[in-house]
Design brief:
By secondary structure, the chain is α/β, with parallel strands linked by helices. It has two domains: 2-129, Rossmann fold, CATH 3.40.50; 133-252, N-(1-d-carboxylethyl)-l-norvaline Dehydrogenase, domain 2, CATH 1.10.1040.10. The chain has helices spanning 10-21, 38-42, 57-61, 98-102, 114-120, 133-152, 160-179, 190-199, 205-213, 226-235, 246-252; strands spanning 2-6, 25-29, 47-50, 70-72, 89-93, 107-111, 125-129. Strands 2-1-3-4-5-6-7 form a seven-stranded mixed sheet, sandwiched between helices. Helix 6 (133-152) runs antiparallel to helix 7.
């Protein structure tokens, strides 16, 4: 098949390597580098894979054909309504860093469709599957926000305090899923707890940025930190935040140039 990957960053190229190894023909388009015409890159594509930073998604979606199957590999989206114009789309998410996939480390992700899982399944990458698109999107976005807070609190992975934080964050995320019409059980899949654990740890950009805020609360990230974009979406009211979500409300209440 001919597959267009939208986003030529670390994760997009890691997914591209899988597809190339499976004998698919890959074209890349990256709006950050403006590498060629989008329409030309999409010509003849059987599938599109979206792997751009979340803040670039809404604008890019406007220009994509709605009748070509779309795989969402971007984390940070909260509202699946922007994807509804597409006739066939699936989401993949979970605890997979680009470097782990490129090095063929055993990894498990979550997909919202069997066809998308089959596209990327290898002997080192496998999937659990759910039809809860909203839940998978929200898990992939919310874990980044909690990772910033874990770093800001200087919680050291493996410590009792870190474990308590993960337990409370897990409870909150399940409450948020339920409040917004998603299935709380989706958090039990790879896209949920497994992803939260590795994101609230080094070398997660979100966790490391939270650590930097401890010494300079007005610092701005040098690279994309998806948790910031998600926090801004939450503040715009894209999801309902229950009063019991104390950690999330704590972060919403913080002020700084980064926020």
């Amino acid at each position: 098949m001919k597959i267009t990957i939208l986003g030529a960053g670390a994760f997009g190229t890691a997914l591209g390597k899988i597809l190339t190894d499976k004998n698919h023909t890959i074209n890349y388009y990256d709006p950050k580098y403006n590498n060629g015409a989008l329409s030309e890159t999409l010509r003849g594509a059987d599938i599109m894979v979206l792997a751009v930073p979340s803040e670039a998604v809404e604008q890019l979606l406007l220009y994509l054909p709605k009748n070509i199957p779309l795989v969402i590999a971007t984390k940070g989206l909260l509202n699946e309504k922007i994807l509804q114009p597409f006739s066939d789309y699936a989401i993949i998410s979970g605890p997979g860093f680009a470097k782990d996939i490129k090095s063929q480390k055993m990894t498990r992700l979550t997909s919202t469709a069997n066809w998308a899982a089959d596209l990327f399944t290898t002997d080192y990458l496998n999937f659990d599957v759910t039809d809860d698109k909203k839940g998978v999107l929200m898990c992939g976005a919310l874990k980044n926000v909690y990772a910033i807070l874990a770093g800001l609190k200087n919680l050291q992975p493996g410590s009792k305090e870190h474990d308590i934080f993960l337990d409370k964050a897990s409870e909150e995320i399940k409450l948020i899923l339920a409040k917004n019409g998603a299935d709380p059980k989706t958090f039990d899949l790879a896209c949920g707890m497994d992803d939260l654990k590795i994101t609230c740890n080094f070398p997660s950009r979100n966790y490391e940025f939270g650590q930097k805020l401890r010494t300079n609360f007005d610092c701005c990230p040098e690279k994309t930190v998806e948790g910031i974009s998600t926090l801004k979406r939450i503040r715009r009211g894209e999801i309902n935040v229950p009063t019991e979500a104390a950690f999330l409300r704590e972060l919403i209440g913080l002020e700084g140039s980064w926020a």
